[in-house]
Amino acid sequence: MTFSAFLIQFLNGLTIASIYILLASGLTIVFGLQGIVNCAHGFFYMLGAYLSFMMVQQLGLSFWLALPVAFAGNFLLGVGLEFLGIRRLMQWGREFTHNLILTLGFAFVGQEVVKIIWGAIAQLAQPPAALEGLLNLGPVAYPKYWLFVMGFTVLVMFGLYLFFLRTGMGILVRSIALNSEVSQAMGTNAPRINTLIFGLGTGVAGIAGVLAGPILSVDPNMAFELLMIVFVVIIFGGMGSLVGVLVSGVIIGEVIAFGTALMSGMIAKILAFAVMIVVLIFRPLGLFGRGAVVE
Amino acid sequence: MGSILELVGVHSYYGESHILQGIDMRVGEGECVALLGPNGMGKTTTLRTIMGLTPGRRGEVRFKDQEITQLRPFQIARMGIGYVPEDRGIFVEMTVWENLRVPYLNLKNRTERRWKEIEERIYALFPALKERKNQMAGTLSGGEQQMLATARGLIAGEEMVLLDEPTEGLAPVIVRNLIEAFEKIKAQKHTMLLVEQNVHTAMRVADRCYILEKGRIKLEEPMKTLAHRPDLLEQYFGIRDQADLT
């Protein structure tokens, strides 16, 4: 493999890692906070992609408008799902399995609705005009849009970092994740914060969908295969850990990129699982997992 | 002295087991009341029931003449009741400062000035916390963690604070420091309900005590007279020699 071919694959790895990281961060935050796995996360990702496709390709609106709209739309839908469904199940003491079934059911219904609105065939989203074409990086030229996806992911992750570590709301969120009962006994309205954070997670999934549209295809099954790898990223990084998602996202992204280039897509996925399994043998809670939430 | 907190015939359960079997008690404003008795008799459950963490199934909990029996823990906390749990419940992976911010961020009127006042008051009471402000709370010693838990309880509990076995498992020198802090808190007219297994601690700070046995109040007694009742001391605390109390 030549140096420029190596560099291209390396950048491809970072691009796909960006999508993994954005998707995994929402899932892992919600898991860390409420101890539930949102099986509808992939649906929110797909919805983001379709909302963007509709706004940009069908209505001729700006991509830069699609990003905040997809975030806001997914945020509101996520808040609705949490408030009307998950919160009720938690109050009745039905925590884990029932929420798996609820969110999975929601995802199936949502997917069918998407098929009714936009059809079952794959669509192709276009990157915004300003980001079309290649950027010369010296040894290689690389698609501008793909570089933008990496940069935007860094921005989102930095925003999340500031939110959780530097704001009052972030302190309250972390206190709930560490000890929900004690935090509530200090006046924290945990149910409300849980709802908002759930919405934040689905909102970020929507952003991931918008960004992934022009790279991967936009179709009703776009989430399923990707989500398998995203779960690998989360478990490998340690459930509930944002830093873990960042590190494992990059590692898995590179494994997938080089595995695909040197062997095949199928073997690359097997490799990703193999890496996860090896790490779990030595660190059962993943790279940065602490198992604080799972008893 | 008017009652700030009142329990009337309160019953609580853990699942099917009947823990509190009709508790009647009251705490006056500015008073320090100790809840004493052997382990497993419902002392912790009484505090959890007041906080709404183990809501009472029968009876009434009243705070400032308002019924709070069915309110949720965060609503009860926001009425000005602070809670210092038995295991301290420190947020281990947050700094000392962040731990103190949690109850503050849930107060109604927040201003920078008010936070400064709170910080000053807390650091005057527990100077060790000021030094360790930016340290991860999980790295504190047991005594420092207890100080932090108490400080958080005081910030949330502007009206009163519930303390669950604050001296349990700590070295005698640290217990002495904590008792001094409790005396200062009491001198500031802060209402306290203190659960203790250790009568000595209670003797130092409490005005009055209730002795809890098998989920019922067995006895209500001013602390001063309890010290002169060797029969009670022996029966409930196994203390034979009066000299043990000093």
User: Within the largest sheet of chain A, what's the order of strands?
Assistant: 1-2
| Secondary structure tally, helices of chain A | 11
How many β-strand runs of chain A?
Answer: 2
- Reading the helices and strands of chain A in chain order gives HHHHEEHHHHHHH
Mean pLDDT of chain A: 91
Oligomer: heterodimer
Radius of gyration of chain A: 19 Å
Number of strands of chain B: 10
In terms of DSSP E residues, the strand content of chain A is under 5%
Indicate the low-confidence ranges of chain B by residue numbers: none
The end-to-end distance of chain A, rounded to whole angstroms, is 47 Å
Strand order of the largest sheet of chain B: 6-7-8-3-9-10
Spans of at least 5 consecutive residues with low confidence of chain A: none
Query: Nearest-angstrom radius of gyration of chain B?
Result: 18 Å
The amount of helix of chain A comes to over 70%
Compressed to H and E, one letter per element, the order of chain B equals EEEHEEHEHHHHEHEHEEHH
* SSE class of chain A: mainly alpha
Q: Find the biggest chain interface.
A: A-B, 19 and 25 residues
Give the biggest sheet of chain B.
6 strands, mixed
Tell me the domain tally of chain A: 1
Structure summary:
Chain A has 295 residues and is mainly alpha-helical. Chain A has helices spanning 3-34, 41-58, 63-91, 97-118, 144-166, 168-178, 180-184, 190-212, 222-237, 242-262, 265-282; strands at 134-136, 141-143. In chain A, a hairpin with a 4-residue loop joins strand 1 and strand 2.
Describe the secondary-structure layout.
The complex is a heterodimer of chains A (295) and B (246).
Chain A (H helix, E strand, L loop, with lengths): L2 H32 L6 H18 L4 H29 L5 H22 L15 E3 L4 E3 H23 L1 H11 L1 H5 L5 H23 L9 H16 L4 H21 L2 H18 L13
Antiparallel strand pairs in A: 1-2
Helix pairs in contact in A: 1-5, 1-8, 1-9, 1-10, 2-3, 2-4, 2-8, 2-9, 3-4, 3-8, 5-6, 6-8, 9-10, 9-11, 10-11
Chain B lengths: L2 E12 L2 E12 L3 E5 L6 H9 L6 E6 L2 E2 L5 H5 L3 E4 L11 H10 L6 H14 L1 H5 L10 H15 L3 E5 L7 H16 L3 E5 L3 H7 L2 E6 L2 E7 H4 L3 H8 L9
Parallel strand pairs in B: 3-8, 3-9, 6-7, 7-8
Antiparallel strand pairs in B: 1-2, 1-4, 4-5, 9-10
Helix pairs in contact in B: 3-6
